[in-house]
Fold:
Amino acid sequence: MSQKTLLFIPMYNCAKQVIRVLEKIDEEALKYISEILIVNNRSTDNGEEVVLNFKKDHPEVPVKLYRNRENYGGGGSHKVAFNYAADNGFDYVIVLHGDDQGDIHDLLPHLESGEGYKYDSFLGARFDKGSKLVNYSKFRIFGNHVFNVFMTVMLGRKIKDLGSGLNMYSVKYLSSRFYMPFINSLTFYVYMLIYGVYSKSNFTFFPLTWREDDQISNAKFFKQSMEILKIVFRYTFSKKKTFGIENEYSTKEYLSDEITELND
Structure:
């Protein structure tokens, strides 16, 4: 393995799903993964116990479990992982959500061919040609296609997804920590995408399989849509102010501790 790659799994109240995610990380996947970092964002279920039991039963899988000192939101957990990757000499970081909607095996062919390593951001797209959606509502599919067309027109770059749960980033690209001022909600991915356009970074999309079975989505479609529209119009009329700022998110410390044993 020539590239040192971190697999980051954000976890929040998905104990039932995260074990399935871990069980899919087989010998083939481990050819491309140097370390797995699971960041628990103050879950209230038994997710930590599930992960630690998996680690005990599978010592060959290089898993580390961290617990955020506060609930930082999904974006905050990404900041913890991105900073960890930059501080520990990784070349790439793969993001795979712990809710078992995406599958790491959709990315592996692109790593085997070397394509995934060519980009600053290599982004999973639920609505790309060749993608497969399982139990995804037709209303949400239509709404996402509308937003993808809107974003393509507004940003001048072909957009195929505003943010899925399987993505890969070059740590060199992340090293300036441009993401620190971004909001910690689910729209963190929208900021990441728009910044990619703003900075003229090299990014592309790849198709994936996306499931919605027993997962609980945190996305509220209409609220999320309004937040995205605000971000896009703010960027359209004031590009530099959208990213060149220091705010409550950038000045916050994102502290997380490694959990090495079960609590009594």
